[in-house]
Amino acid sequence: MIKEIHDLSKEEGKAHVIKYGRFNDFPPNWHEIDAKAYSRADYFTYGAWLSEYRQMLPPTRDKVMVAARLEFLRDGTGYAVVNDWHEQTIKYFKFGCDHQWGDPTEELKKRGIKLAMFDNASYCVKCGHLAIHDSSD
Ligand SMILES: [Zn+2]
User: Fold this and answer.
1) How many angstroms separate the alpha carbon of residue 126 from the centre of ligand 1?
2) Chain-centre distance for alpha carbon 114
């Protein structure tokens, strides 16, 4: 089930704001992607764990507000589709880390994690995200 922002505990909510900003903030690394890139989004395979509606304003206030529902993935990234009701158009956006995958060996040692037979690990050298997938599923 996808959580909403009000479903988070007080501590989870604080951590979320520190990492992604508040209701009027764009999340870090917010950028437009095209429909082809969106069609290959991890979102379609793994789904989102958190959904949040925002009305985001650029810090300079020189552009119009962007209203969007942000879908957060477990790897710290996310996607949003922004509609223009009057123009009848949509645009696609991605936010969060552009993961740069590196060797997970040292990170697994540091965290005291031993992989099982069919486990594969991915480690992002930019944000520290560690994902372990069971390839036998
Ligand atoms: Zn990353």
Assistant:
1) 5
2) 26
